[in-house]
Amino acid sequence: MLMCKMQHGPGDDWNNHRSDVANLTRYAERRWDRDLTWQVINPQAATVDDLLQAPVLFMNGQMGPEFTAHDRQKLRDYIDRGGFIFSEA
């Protein structure tokens, strides 16, 4: 698993560029000569262990994400346990 694309509100702002992570994964596969995959993950439904299945969480969008205090704590725990959040506006 190369990375997860984080689904977040408001609306579909998290998915403005639908092929972004797919294209990056395909590029990394060619460069590293390995079969890789990616997935969309909803942090509200996921546990920290679910998030840790991927070393990188990719988050994008033009609006600020709508996370609850519980979601923010899960993301902090993800980082504390070695995860990396890559964010792009």
Polypeptide structure, described:
It is a single chain. Helix content is 33%, strand content 20%. It has 89 residues and is of the alpha/beta class. The chain has a 4-stranded parallel sheet with strand order 2-1-3-4, covered by helices on one side. Helix 3 links the parallel strand 3 and strand 4. The two termini are 23 Å apart. The model has no long low-confidence stretch (mean pLDDT 91).
* Distance, first to last CA: 23 Å
Structural class: alpha/beta
Instruction: Give the integer mean of the pLDDT values.
Output: 91
Helix content class = 25-40%
Question: Helix count?
Answer: 3
Beta-strand fraction estimate: 15-25%
Secondary-structure element sequence?
EHEHEHE
Order of strands in the sheet with most strands: 2-1-3-4
Shape: globular
Radius of gyration computed on alpha carbons = 13 Å
Strands, count: 4
Major sheet: 4 strands, parallel
- Low-pLDDT residue spans: none
